[in-house]
């Protein structure tokens, strides 16, 4: 008797179409990222995850040989509860691009998730002596809970100098300074003479 081993989908990483067939890059529960595989949609029974994934993508497709890829949207704005859920998953992988929009409502903030989306600014690194400062700005927007995140220079920045901002913007050096921080605190390697020793 043949038996089929079933694997649980943790989340969907990416999407493409080949010759009219949908394929999803799958992160499997209990398996490292190196074990991610491309699977045709008829191999999957996780319609809710597929639905959530496509909410994060525009369906403006462009052709590349025989494959079609979805172009990515700006960062996704999510509610606090969803940010907590995603934060635990990202933290277990040692990476996160969550940014709370707590300018207006610090108790129930919205959160920007730039893990898969957004512009080059989500690659700006941390420094305990940064040359950039984060400000919330409002452009053609009357909703105080949805500011745009802007980076402004704190001083004159030299050519070829790396751009950085302080991830611990509150100045709080406790382990709870950032609710999305790793359970095991992350050492700071910024190299600044005033380095605090920890990212958050």
TrEMBL record:
Annotated Chromo domain residues? 7-65
| SMART domains linked | CHROMO, SET
Per the UniProt entry, what are the Gene Ontology biological process annotations, in alphabetical order?
Answer: methylation
Q: Which GO terms describe its molecular function?
A: histone H3K9 methyltransferase activity; metal ion binding
Any Pfam family:
SET
Q: Where in the cell is it found?
A: Chromosome, Centromere; Nucleus
Q: Where is the Post-SET domain?
A: 184-200
- Transmembrane segments annotated in the record for this chain: none
Annotated SET domain ranges read: 1-168
Supply the alphabetized keyword list. Answer: Centromere, Chromatin regulator, Chromosome, Metal-binding, Methyltransferase, Nucleus, S-adenosyl-L-methionine, Transferase, Zinc
Superkingdom per UniProt: Eukaryota
Protein name stated in the entry? Uncharacterized protein
Q: Which organism is it from?
A: Ciona savignyi (Pacific transparent sea squirt)
What is the phylogenetic placement of the source species in the record?
Eukaryota, Metazoa, Chordata, Tunicata, Ascidiacea
